[in-house]
Amino acid sequence: MEFESWWLAAIPLFFGLGWAAARVDLRHEPRKRGALPDAYFRGLNFLLNEQPDKAIDAFIDVVKLDPETVELHFALGNLFRRRGESDRAIRVHLNLAERVDLDRSQREHALFELGQDYLKAGLLDRAEDAFNRLDATEYAGAALRHRMDIAQMVRDWPLAIDLAERLSREPGQARSHELAHFRCEMAVRALQSGSDDRLEQASRELDLAARAAPDHPRPFLMAGELAIEQGDPARAIRLWEAVAANHPAYLGLIASAWLAAHAAVDQSDAGIDALVQAHRRSPSIDTLAAIADAMERLRGEAAAMTWVRQELARHPSLLGLEKLFALQVRGASDEDRMQIETSQKVLQQHTQRLARYVCDRCGFKARSHYWQCPGCSRWDTYAPRRIEEMQR
Fold first, then answer.
1. Is 170 contained in some domain?
2. Mean pLDDT value across residues 58-81
3. Is residue 16 included in any domain, yes or no?
4. Which terminus of the chain, N or C, has fewer Cβ atoms within 10 Å?
5. β-bridge partners, 379
6. Does some domain include residue 275?
7. Would you say 343 and 335 are in contact if contact means Cβ atoms under 8 Å apart?
8. Domain of 272?
């Protein structure tokens, strides 16, 4: 083959092109190796030092430099939501959910995060729509839980029951106590409806509640109250005896009704004695007050005061002392009554805050006992005892 001399002239050109290509590769090599901008690491450092505001600024810089950093978009959106900037979180996650270049798993992740953004912002309809679209995805279980939370917020108890039953069919997702509460709320709604069959409706819901959670006291407490309304105190006693055996602390919530039911079947003394036994196992100011009043009525003032003093010796209590003063004032002379009433007023200034119930999750205090906390909406966070009793 004849050698063309012009090839000698092309060699320097090829060498120059190769050198230029190598420089271009070197310039992009850090990115290929997975190198990240310094702002990314600054953001991580700010997060570790609990400086979310500075972390957000750093991550925004990274996103501007490289819009393809999908995971960083997720992190940024979550930071916005944690800071309460729901509108910015929604924009970030909505943009991700609508991107066609992402794979299905990433879009589902974005949709799940978007639902949480809407929920945090109080846009319940949009949140529910986002979570509904996650059926048959890896986020289906978590979305169901959020949908159940929304159903409780709007007090849609039939929907809450349906979702709780669906969740209960999943491994490790038992919802028996929540189901019981939802059924009890349906019973409350039936009783408030004023319909002719309201008692029958309430009774059916409470039976279902007891089947869902036979170890929970609420269905039995409510069923006993319903039995009283239906004129069947003997049945009420039987239902409440199950509570006394398994959850004596909850008898304080119906202590007066317990004694009234026993009185209705001519078993007042037996009712007092049984309540005393429950009180010994689980002391409560409510059972103490109810027993003291019943003893005073049936056995006399002296017997009631003697019993209260004995109980205060076992379990000292300012609320119990207040009850003792109330007993003493009724049988005191005019001069003694004035002294006792003065002591009562001083004592009441300290006992008012001690007589409340408190949520053990959010600390919300209330004068009445709640099965669902008005503050954090959690179930069973109120113990059936007053603050003073919880501090012992």
1. no
2. 65
3. no
4. N
5. 372
6. yes
7. no
8. 247-330
Say how far apart CA 74 and CA 113 lie, in whole Å: 8
CA distance 299 to 307: 11
Whole-prediction pTM: 0.77
CA contacts within 13 A on the Cβ side of 276:
16
Give residues with Cβ within 8 angstroms of 121, minimum separation 6.
86, 87, 90
Interval 229-243 mean pLDDT: 96
Cα separation of 207 and 183, whole Å?
9
How distant is the alpha carbon of residue 390 from its chain centre?
20
Burial of 75 (0-12, 13-18, 19+ CB in 10 A): buried
- Phi, psi for residue 284 in degrees, rounded to 5: -150, 140
Residue 131 identity:
F
81's CB contacts (< 8 A; 6+ apart) are 89, 113, 116, 117, 120
pLDDT tens figures, 313-362: 998 888 888 888 777 777 666 666 666 666 767 677 777 788 899 999 99
Q: To the nearest 10°, the Cα dihedral for 349, 350, 352, 358?
A: 160
Please, which pLDDT band fits residue 71 given cuts at 50, 70 and 90? confident
Structurally, the chain folds into a number of domains equal to 1
> Is the CB of residue 76 less than 8 Å from the CB of residue 57?
no
Distance CA 325, CA 329 (A): 6
Give the bridge partners for 357, in sequence order: 366
More confident of the two residues 47 and 279: 279
**DSSP secondary structure code for residue 99 in this structure:** -
CB 360 within 8 A of CB 226: no
Highest mean pLDDT among 58-72, 157-171, 261-275: 261-275
Amino acid found at 86: S
Instruction: Count Cβ atoms below 10 Å from residue 269 Cβ, excluding itself.
Output: 14
